[in-house]
Design a protein that fits this description.
Helix content is 45%, strand content 24%. It has 310 residues and is of the alpha+beta class. The longest helix is centred in the first third of the chain and has 36 residues, at 61-96. The radius of gyration is 23 Å and the shape is flat.
């Protein structure tokens, strides 16, 4: 350290800030994102290996399911990489400017950031049905009553999905003339897209397998400053429907130029977004409209997503 241009008092302050910075722990969310990515990959690998022979006769449903899993896994890994870049960028800023580190420590959001964490896990294996679920909840919101409302909604939806899927599995098994040897599985997890423009965006998704795989999602987009769930109208403005419809129709037209892509037409195809259209906010801060399998395209096309620029 060159003491010609810095006083002893200033030097001591820098050393204190340096020590304080080096003691900062890496957020547990990073390790959780990575571990969930590995876990999802391993569970899906085991599931689809076990039903490979049966599904080879189902018209490509397994390959499409693997495509979905690959997409989700890649998305989680990307989130982990993005978080690493944020941590790295923050580190550079602190190292290069102790004054910057001191000013950042005064920003409340860094010490009370809204986040989504696993509150409980479910592991069941009985009656030829295996259930694995990671139950999330929202933490860090300033309005606890609102957070409790959202978390209750998440739990109730998960309970309803598991109960309904179990009933469907049991009904199909009882109506079959031969014993169904395929192990039926229900897997529930969540994916956090991050906080962009003050909006915490995440989804809770369910995969159910019984010879074929079925996938559905519930999306949550929360304004962490106003403590409320937002809609596409909140993001895109009063003309949100026409903006979204124009963008999605244009993207469908462009994608349809590829011979491997096909979309339903007429009343069976895309006729416009719904008022409660499923969407999330991506890392560009743009809404992404999501359509499930068979909603606007054949099942072989999988889940369809359309980024809508403002």
């Amino acid at each position: 350290m060159n003491n010609k241009n810095i006083s002893e008092n200033e030097y001591n302050k820098i050393e204190f800030l340096k020590e304080d910075y080096l003691n900062v722990e890496i957020p547990e969310e990073l390790s959780r994102i990575v571990s969930r990515t590995i876990e999802l990959s391993e569970i899906k690998k085991e599931t689809y290996n076990g039903t490979k022979d049966k599904n080879s006769q189902s018209g490509g449903s397994v390959s499409m399911s693997k495509k979905i899993i690959k997409m989700r896994t890649r998305s989680l890994v990307t989130s982990a990489a993005a978080l690493l870049l944020v941590i790295s960028g923050f580190s550079i800023g602190v190292n290069e400017s102790p004054a910057f580190a001191h000013s950042m420590s005064k920003i409340p959001v860094l010490s009370s950031l809204a986040k989504v964490v696993t509150v409980s896990e479910i592991h069941e294996n009985s009656n030829n049905i295996k259930v694995t679920a990671n139950i999330p909840k929202v933490e860090g919101l300033s309005d606890k009553a609102f957070a409790d409302k959202v978390n209750k909604q998440i739990q109730e939806k998960i309970n309803e999905k598991v109960a309904r899927t179990k009933a469907e599995f049991n009904k199909n098994s009882s109506s079959s003339n031969s014993k169904d040897a395929v192990k039926k599985e229900i897997y529930i997890n969540y994916e956090v897209y991050g906080i962009h423009n003050g909006i915490l965006s995440f989804c809770v998704y369910k995969t159910s397998t019984s010879g074929s795989a079925y996938f559905d999602e519930d999306f949550y987009n929360i304004d962490v400053n106003k403590n409320k769930e937002i809609t596409l109208k909140d993001v895109l403005g009063p003309e949100y429907m026409s903006i979204a419809d124009k963008s999605i129709k244009s993207q469908i037209e462009e994608r349809s130029k590829m011979p491997e892509n096909s979309y339903f037409t007429g009343n069976d195809g895309f006729t416009g977004i719904r008022k409660n259209q499923a969407f999330y906010i991506n890392n560009h801060g743009n809404p992404v409209a999501v359509f499930n399998k068979y909603e606007i395209a054949p099942g072989s096309m999988g889940i369809q997503e359309f980024e809508i620029t403002k």
